[in-house]
Design brief:
The protein is mainly α and 103 residues long. The chain has one domain. It is 69% helix and 0% strand. The chain has five helices and no strands. The protein has helices spanning 3-21, 32-44, 48-67, 71-79, 93-102. Helix 3 crosses helix 5 (93-102). It starts with a helix and ends with a helix. Residues 1-23 form the signal peptide. Pfam families: DUF6694. Keywords: Signal. InterPro entries: DUF6694 (IPR046516).
Amino acid sequence: MKIRTKMKLVAIGAALLLLVACGSPTLDTSSAGAFEKSSAAIVADLNEEEQSVFAAAFTRYGMKAMMNRSSADIMRLGANPHEAYAGLDGLTADEIIEKANKD
């Protein structure tokens, strides 16, 4: 990884840490409506570059979650996609990015 890319990631991480300190919005996976509302609030709280990083991490987590499911589970989750993200419930954007990169 290039130094410049690493520096950008560190800067984004630092910015996201500041968001956490300022009471950043968290993801609510309790229902489809809560999931949509809370994920929109998280994205609205991020700048364009942070939104890109967040979207990639969010997608990565979802793909990993689906890979560990049976076909029947995936069909059921098609109607309830918020359930695939239950492991992210209560997390901020920074925490979601960290978890997606770790898991």
